[in-house]
Specification:
Elements: H1 3-11, H2 14-26, E1 38-40, E2 43-44, E3 65-67, E4 72-73, E5 76-77, E6 84-86, H3 93-113
């Protein structure tokens, strides 16, 4: 969401905001099945349940993203939160870290399999992970063979 949309949602009164939340939860996902279970004789179960009131005051937080200028140097590789930090509310930090660990383990395994020095990186190329949101700066590292 861009800052303008965030400001619009923050400026809404509670009723408008509840309506916007319900619209977001129930918009564009196709028909929802009605459950056979009933909450009472007169009420059927709805998926998703409707929001009727806010439980607390609303707040807006700018999401941040930081990453190291260099992920790799001679005999050093940064992965996970050491390489890049994503705001916890974005919910992707651990996934990026797992992707980094997977890629680095594959690169190390390939280097060990052919007997290269796994600590050497030709031309100081950047570590390019499959999960990197920043794109690649250069090629995937190539371990030197000498």
């Amino acid at each position: 969401m861009n800052p303008e949309q965030s400001s619009d949602l923050t400026a809404m009164n509670e009723d408008e905001f509840v309506k916007a939340v319900n619209h977001a939860l129930d918009h564009g996902y196709g028909p929802h099945p009605k459950g056979n279970l009933t909450m009472s004789i007169n009420e059927s179960f709805e998926v998703p349940p409707k929001v009727v009131k806010l439980a607390s005051k609303r707040a807006a937080f700018p999401l941040s993203l930081m990453h190291a200028n260099d992920y790799i140097a001679k005999r050093i590789v940064l992965i996970g939160d050491a390489a890049h930090a994503v705001h916890p509310l974005a919910g992707q930090g651990v996934n990026l870290g797992f992707g980094d660990a997977f890629t680095l383990s594959r690169i190390i395994g390939e280097g060990v399999a052919v007997g290269t020095d796994i600590g050497e990186v030709r031309n100081g190329q950047m570590l390019c992970t499959v999960s990197s949101p920043f794109g690649c700066k250069g090629q995937e590292p190539v371990v030197s063979q000498g």
